[in-house]
Amino acid sequence: MDAAMLTLGVLGVAAFLFATEIIPLAVTAMGAAIALGLLGVLTPAQVFSGLSNSTVVLFAGMFIIGAAMFQTGLAQKIGIAVVKKSGNDERALMAALMLITIVLSSVSSNTATVACLMPVVIQICAAAKLPVSPQLMALAVAANVGGTITMIGTPPNILMSATLGASGLTPFGFFEFAWIGIPLSIAGMIYMLTIGRKLCPRKLVDSEAVAGEAEEAKDPRKMVICAVILIGVVVAMVLEKQINVPMQTSAIIGGLLCVLTGCLSEKQAYQGVDWTTIFLFAGMLPLASAMDHSGAGKLIADFVVGLIGDHPSPMLIVGAMFALSCGLTQFMSNTAAAALLAPIAISIAQSIGVSPYPVVMAIGIAASCAFTTPVATPPNTLVLGPGQFRFMDYVKVGVPLVFVSLIVCLVVIPLVWPF
Predict the structure, then answer these.
(1) Which of 6, 67, 141, 410 holds its CA 20 to 30 A away from the CA of 416?
(2) Quick one: pLDDT band at residue 206, thresholds 50, 70, 90?
């Protein structure tokens, strides 16, 4: 059996295990890379090359900075201040809540953002006797779309850039995602403030389930230090080429400063790193490389192109890959879905002679459009119980929003990244 077929076999098994999560996602990813090494498709050095990838370092640094934001109380303080100013008006509360969630999710963990703001929202709804369900659904939606604004906002974004780099192409820039992320976030806010909130159940807060107020930070000085570090890191990343400091270096310096200044302890820094994402990413990069060099990606590309015709419209390719990525991410890890599809998308684009950038961007954005099931993404799961949602509530709210997101992508992506 040639290398391409062996790679496809490993890919198929990995896809099944990703979807079912019979074994942990990180174990599946690293297991796929090791299997390709044992089968002779990858060299021993290539099997573990993902662990030394600069993007893994970037991940680690930003996880630590994000953890410091929540450990010092900076994120909580920002969230409470913005949300409480909205008063008792349901729409004003939702608008303020979504805005701050989008901002926080663009530079830190969307899961941590939801976990931080959820008790605040529940308390406000309980005091004002407002339905809590629409607010919590809006919180989850904002966390998902907010992550699409920057490269570090969500793992699929970083993965898209790294996959382009692994294929010999120029990666996306730090704020390049904002061209689609900001319009998508605005569309998500408008949708939830109009149609979406009407599709949500109108459940009031269960008094027994009300969580306590978020704790105030013990040391305001540390909040200021953390804010300065975060701003400095983001500015350094934006000016990466001008100051000649790689983004991963800026992220690690920021993480180290958070520990050295006491914003969080060494143990808290380790705990703040999402190791599942780290190893999932490190395992999928060698698989992406094997897809490229073994010819497996080209085989899939030829098959897909054959299904949609000899001269498919580039827009059709973008729409199809968006639908596939979005469909997969409703039931499996969005990082895993994006990792599976990115190298395939590059092969498809190159096989029909168009730029891979719009196709890859569509996959990355679609992976964050995880709106239609409670298991699609951690923010959705977090609000399930407190919001008293049923599975079909996610479907009712999420399906129209997926179509809104697709339209935004089909309009904006070709304008920013021409075929």
Answers:
(1) 141
(2) low
